[in-house]
Every structure is written in C-alpha cells, then in structure tokens.
C-alpha cells in the first residue's frame, strides 16, 4: 500500500472524528447556554430592582414623585397675556364705578331726577347745556388731570432732589456735631485731669464756688420777688378792706 493512501485515510478519519465531536458537543453547549440564560436574566432583574435595606437610586431631575409639571415659557406668556386681557375690562369697570360714585356724590339722585325733568320740559336749553358740557367738559377735565399729574410728578422730583441734596448735608452736619461733642468732652476731661494733677483741683473749686454763688444769687432774687408779691397782695387786701369800711360808713 502506498504512503499517500495511508496518509489520506488517516486525514479523513481525523476529520470525521472532529466533526463527530463537534456535532456531539454543540447540543451540549446550546443546552448549557439555554440553561444559564434564565439565571442571568434573573440576576440582572434582581440587580436592577431596589433591594430592601439598600440606598435608593438618584431620582431624575424632573419632579415625577409629586406629579408636578414645570410650565414652559410659552405657557407662562400665554397665562400672562390672558391675565392682562382680563385686567383691562376690570380696570374699565373700576373706573366707571368710580366715576358713577363721584357723580352721585357731586349730584345726588334727587337733584339728578330734577335736572332730568327740567331738561325734558326745556329740550332746547337742555340740549344746549349738554352739548357745551360735552365739548367743554372733556378738555377741561383733561387739563385739570394733566395739571394734577404734572404737579404730582414735580413734587416727587423735588422731594427726590431735596433728599439727594439735603441728605449728604445732614450727614456731614451730624458727623460734625458728633465730633464736636466728642472733642468737647475730651478737652474737658483733659483740663480736669491736668487741674487735679498739677493744680490740686483749684480750677474745679473755683468753678464750683462760682456755680454756688450764682445759685445763691438766683435764690435771693426769687425770695425778693416772692416778698414783693406778698407785699403787693397785702397792700391790695388792705386797700380792699379800707374801701369796704368806707362803704359801710
């Protein structure tokens, strides 16, 4: 038998044996993979879920726990525009109510009824007065309102400017007053300390003596005034008694 035939026979046998082993081990491998897959899925689901006693996971930035939705800028702008549109009619109603109250306060209902009856009885004069009030009253009201607004604005500006000008002046003046007060007490304490240290309190005794002398003079003046008043009262009583005695006589 030649050597090539033997070698080819051995190669074919080896290939057949390898294919047989692979075909035999493949079902076993598939079986092991199919068996371990549920276990892997179970472990993954267990690790993904919250384990009792473990720290909770970080929540997302959105407030999903309280079910609160954060509105967008478009929604906020829409709500603001809606509120503004509702505010204009309310402002008009408030202005109309204020005008009616002012008219009712200025012209009571009884007088309004009397004016209405007079206007019906005299239609020419009533329409003339109404036209004049309509044509003249509006410019007059606008002028008065403008004057009041201008006066209010001018007053506010004047107050602000006064505060801006007067504020620093008052601050500087108060600081000067505090400094003057402090330096005055400092000089007084220094002079008193020098007097007690070098002069033995001579200036203090002299000053106390002058103060006591002035007090005594004031008390003496008050006593003299009281004595004069008592003397005058005595003279008045004496003159009144003398007059009564003369009248009796």
UniProtKB/TrEMBL annotation:
Residues 1-33 have a biased composition (Polar residues). The chain crosses the membrane at residues 140-165, 171-194. Keywords: Membrane, Transmembrane, Transmembrane helix. It comes from the Eukaryota. It holds the Pfam family Promethin. Residues 1-65, 218-249 are annotated as: Disordered. Residues 34-49 have a biased composition (Low complexity). Residues 218-236 have a biased composition (Basic and acidic residues). This is Uncharacterized protein. It comes from Aspergillus keveii.
């Amino acid at each position: 038998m030649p050597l090539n035939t033997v070698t080819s026979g051995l190669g074919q046998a080896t290939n057949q044996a390898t294919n047989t082993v692979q075909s035999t081990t493949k079902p076993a491998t598939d079986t092991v993979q199919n068996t371990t897959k549920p276990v892997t899925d179970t472990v993954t689901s267990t690790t993904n879920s919250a384990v009792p006693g473990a720290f909770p996971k970080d929540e997302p930035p959105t407030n999903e726990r309280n079910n609160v939705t954060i509105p967008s800028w478009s929604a906020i702008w829409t709500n603001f525009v809606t509120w503004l549109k509702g505010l204009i009619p309310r402002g008009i109603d408030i202005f109309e109510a204020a005008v009616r109250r002012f008219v009712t306060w200025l012209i009571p209902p009884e007088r309004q009824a009397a004016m209405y009856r007079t206007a019906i009885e005299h239609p020419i004069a009533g329409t003339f007065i109404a036209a004049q009030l309509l044509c003249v009253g509006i410019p007059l009201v606008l002028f008065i309102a403008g004057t009041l607004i201008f006066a209010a604005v001018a007053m506010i500006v004047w107050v602000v400017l006064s505060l801006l000008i007067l504020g620093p002046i008052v601050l500087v003046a108060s600081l000067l007053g505090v400094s003057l007060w402090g330096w005055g007490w400092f000089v007084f304490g220094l002079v008193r300390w020098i007097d007690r240290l070098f002069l033995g309190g001579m200036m203090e005794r002299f000053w106390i003596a002058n103060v006591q002398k002035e007090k005594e003079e004031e008390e003496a003046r008050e006593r003299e005034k009281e004595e004069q008043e008592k003397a005058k009262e005595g003279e008045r009583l004496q003159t009144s008694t003398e007059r009564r005695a003369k009248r009796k006589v």
